[in-house]
Design goal:
alpha+beta, 2 domains, six-stranded antiparallel sheet
Amino acid sequence: MRYLALKHALILTLAPAVLDAGCGREHPEKITFAPPPYLQATPQIEESSLEKWLASKPNYEGIEIKLWHHSDIHSFGSLIAIRGNGECTRSRTQDYPILEKERTIVEHLRLPLPKSKVAYILDLFNYVEILRLPRSVPEDWPKEMRYSLGLMIPGVGSFEGEHPDIEWSKLPQSTAARRLVRTILELIAGLEERIRSEDAAFLKDDTLTSLVRENKGNLHLELWDIQGMWGGMAIRLGGDGRVHGVSLGPKPGESGLHVQRFQGDVGKERMAGILTSCMQRGTFDVKRKRETGIPDESYPAVVLRASIKGIDYSRSIALFDGEARETPAFQIVRDALRKIGEELLKE
């Protein structure tokens, strides 16, 4: 057994962060925790079965790890999925997608997680405190953001457990589950940062200038500028000048905010002009000065997407509204894209 009951505490007896000789596999450090009161009486997967499987040095084929962050049901929120071969996807729901069919966005990360990191995550699942997390939400839990952890191993079993939000919830927390959630988030964030760095190195000005001039790369420039209380606009401008967008705002004679989608064509020259402005002003090289906004402050983002030889690349910058208005390299591009949307809404 990998745990020992001592009064109301459980002490994990995993070896502290060491590497298995010859395979570079990390193991988690020993942690001590008090089990939260909402744990199930029996684990969904027997710890001994999972331990035996891990010890067999499996190839991880067919494994799937999932981490949902949502307030009620999985289809409304965000999801990280990691396969045994390291392939990772991120999906999220949007309240106001540019196209109705894009309400759920699925992003396949270009780079995989190393097998050693997948193994590390699996080791973190192998604690009785995690395997006993409740499959369904306890009745006394408030309706608030929470995490759902999922694991599927062919021939061993499947697991899905609920856990309170690790940042904001006042419900009792599982130390082991908190560490597992943080590890997954940090590993994916590190992978995304590496992808962003590679994309920035590839999508340099000379590459973009060539793509615009030759009308290649399936270029798209997007503005995401909607705040749920006050409204706003999201717009996508293609390299060929085609436009799709969605507006959230008041409607004459009616109360509340209303969704209105629009589309049109402004010509590829206009796209080339805005993208040239981005390059000249260094829009995507702007460094954000603050990490938090004031209550109800919007958080506009400008995103450039390109697809070259079947590989997707992107660059993006997001600023809180107050800082955005004081940053010409951002605000000029924001205004140019909003102006296109306003013109098309009047047609």
